Known about the structure:
Layout: H1 8-14, E1 21-25, H2 37-42, E2 46-48, E3 55-58, H3 68-71, E4 75-77, H4 85-89, E5 99-102, H5 109-117, E6 123-127, H6 131-144, E7 149-152, E8 166-172, H7 185-190, H8 193-210, E9 214-224, H9 233-242, E10 245-247, H10 252-260, E11 264-268, E12 271-278, E13 288-295, H11 314-323, E14 330-333, E15 336-339, H12 344-349, E16 360-365, E17 372-375, H13 377-381, E18 391-394, H14 396-403, E19 425-432, E20 435-443, E21 446-449
Parallel strand pairs: 5-6, 5-8, 6-7, 8-9, 18-19
Antiparallel strand pairs: 1-3, 1-4, 2-3, 9-13, 10-13, 11-12, 12-13, 14-15, 15-16, 16-17, 19-20, 20-21
Amino acid sequence: MTQTLADADTFFAALSQAPVTSLRVNPQKLSGEAIPLIPRALQVDTQPVPWHPDGIYLASRPQFVADPLFHAGAYYVQEASSMVLYQLLADMSETASLRILDMCAAPGGKSTLLAAAMPAGSLLVSNEVVPARASILTENMRRWGHPQVLVISRAADNFARLEGFFDVVLVDAPCSGEGMFRKDETSVSQWSQDLIDTCAVRQQDILRDVLPSLRAGGTLIYATCSYAPEENEQVVEALLAAGELVLAPLPSPQQKDLEHLGITPITIDNTPHAAYRCYPHRLQGEGMFFCRLKKVGEETPLDISEAVSSELPKVARDFTNTYLNGTHPVLLEGNQLYLNLDGYAELKQAKLATPKSLLNLGKLHGKGARQGITPSHEMVLSTLLSDDISSVNLTKQDALRYLQKQDLPRPASTGTTFVDELPEQGWVVARYEGLALGWLKATRGQLNNALPLKWRIRQQL
């Protein structure tokens, strides 16, 4: 590092400082006048992250699990430097719908950013090969609530079966973690030159395996949280040498803006601003590397299957008409209802996705006149939920009771607003500050907590 940074002493001094805390607001759930709810709820001072319109720095790190807005998906706690990804997408926001792959997506920070930034009608495939991490990714993506997201768990070499399918591929590759030394003591103790060399080989393997799935003319974004040239510049140079990719620098005005914000431009293959590196002594954030490339070749249109609905029984048609905020294609698999998506058929045919990759809407049960549907927790958190469903707006105290899977007292704490007329039977949305937290089940006029056990707060508050 001392050989590459003129201000290396300042850099090393910054590594001894505490990391900053930041989050990114979910624009589909909070916007405008509602955004100040977050600093009030967390009781911290805030300031904006300058390279992302929804990014916020926090003066201290609160207990996020004790904030119902976190459980409602109002924001995602994300390291500020990783939000620089938004800048590499800025000139794509006005394009037609995109098919995007986040190859190494867990725990979900960049996938939630992609979901919020992608044009209307786009499809995001969030992939994580490690099953335990894929489970965390699924929970975070469903809490975020964007319906146009498939979550899968596949190794990179499976994606060659989906040739030319994606318009954008993000590979935020597993790395030595040098850029997270301030946040993760484990990365410090595990660091070695052998680890860097091993990671560099793995990164090139992942990129080689996934590249066939990117269409000609499509965009590859490569990122790591490492400073090592072996994992960054040298990996990009190997991609360029293979001849399938060229550098895709940002427009000149944007280059100047990023440099002014303390984001360091990197020259690769004699191209200035070919990539960017974040250093903790030059900005408020941790270490990151980003490079944008374009796949060469003749662009050919790809016919993508349009999502259609299964043949649904009347109870399912009535359910979707009541609970969804419009007409959407619905897939019935066994006794489960899922939101169908354009392109899902191709992913399923390539054995990359199953119905469980889709947003679950509910479960069909019973027969004949007693047939009904239990709505899913995933659906109540999604932006597909109809605004016309009966709801209860809870105080923070009652919201936390609900999220700990406790029964709500009746009457509830002062400030909780119950609907004027509870249904004798049926489903009611539990809300906090107007945002959905989950379901309550009305039975003979009483409300029962229907939060799934796996979504409850487990720790003592």
